[in-house]
Design brief:
single chain; 281 residues; alpha/beta; six-stranded parallel beta sheet; three-stranded parallel beta sheet; 11 strands; 41% helix; globular; binds NADPH dihydro-nicotinamide-adenine-dinucleotide phosphate
Length: 281
């Protein structure tokens, strides 16, 4: 049986630590602030926003929510972002994705000041990550790395396979693991011999969005399995990409879904907001 990586506990410790730091901010001094823009009423987005808001309240970060109509124009969103970029009370700006089709996501995201881009989605911050400069780190990849580090799992020299090459998970994670001296292989839907490659991984990370994508015959005995995927099964329950019941028997370490990478993503967002606040000061 693999050791369960308890991201819930680690993320709670991170939030408690931030809460202490924010409590120690001198009376009368400004607390960190996070602005969240949500366009339309996508139910999944609403759930994520609720969880982020709850974490802000717990830690003591002021959250400013902008619930915008699905019909809002791109111009109007850019106007709101421009104002928030100059708003002294706001350290972080987050635009909940996906955006409706008539809005150009790339233009909207890149309008956010790189100093306030707590999701680390802008070209500037991704460029900084690429060059290994200090700064804001993308939340989900950073959460995965933190989980490994908290469990003292050696990354250096290890063969890491990431399944999924999206701009928000797979690609930035490949850069961050490389920075940590791993040998990285990024695989995707066009990869040949996917099973064979996965089976050679010391650390296997799945970010696909398909239930039971990773089965026990794709996993090396004793390897580390990080499941980023969030899917719904037939009964509406949340599951990851990994066939947990069977893979757990072979893995050395494994993350459950829900309760590992998800809470870490939010904890990293809170850390980024605090980092942006300190940076501004
Ligand atoms: P995307 O849809 O943007 O990317 C999915 C990736 O999976 C693509 O690169 C795609 O390949 C690859 N893929 C699809 N099918 C296969 C296949 N059969 N074999 C190999 N690769 C395949 O997803 P995201 O990166 O945005 O999200 C991935 C999952 O992670 C989702 O379930 C999402 O909900 C979850 N997620 C969880 C977070 C958390 O905090 N826990 C945060 C962000 C996402 P190709 O490029 O060739 O199409």
């Amino acid at each position: 049986m693999g050791i369960i990586i308890d991201g819930k506990k680690i993320s709670q410790d991170i939030k408690d630590n931030l809460k202490k730091k924010i409590l120690s901010i001198e009376e009368g001094k400004r607390k960190p602030g996070l602005a969240v823009l949500i366009v339309g009423d996508d139910p999944a987005s609403k759930i994520y926003i609720k969880a982020k808001k709850k974490s802000c309240e717990y830690i003591g970060i002021n959250s400013f929510e902008f619930n915008l109509s699905r019909e809002i124009s791109e111009e109007k969103i850019l106007e709101i972002i421009d104002k928030l970029n100059f708003d002294e009370k706001v350290d972080g700006i987050l635009v909940q994705l996906p955006l409706p089709k008539h809005i150009n996501q790339e233009i909207v995201i890149n309008r956010i000041s790189s100093y306030k881009d707590v999701d680390c989605f802008t070209k500037i911050n991704i460029g900084n990550l690429f060059y290994g400069f200090d700064g804001l780190k993308p939340c989900t990849p950073n959460g995965c790395i933190r989980l490994l580090k908290e469990y003292n799992i050696e990354i250096s020299g290890k063969f890491c396979v990431i399944v999924g090459r999206s701009n928000i998970v797979g690609k930035p994670l490949s850069i961050m693991l490389t920075e940590n001296n791993a040998t990285v292989c990024l695989v995707h839907s066009k990869t040949l011999n996917l099973k064979t490659i996965c089976k050679t991984a010391d650390i296997l990370i799945s970010a696909v969005g398909k239930k039971n994508m990773i089965t026990d015959d794709m996993v090396k005995q004793g390897s580390v399995i990080i499941d980023v995927g969030i899917n719904r099964d037939e009964d509406g329950n949340i599951t990851g990409d990994v066939d947990y019941k069977n893979v757990e028997k072979i893995a050395g370490y494994i993350t459950p879904v829900p309760g590992s990478v998800g809470p870490m993503t939010i904890a990293m967002l809170m850390e980024n907001t605090f980092y942006a606040y300190l940076n501004k000061k």
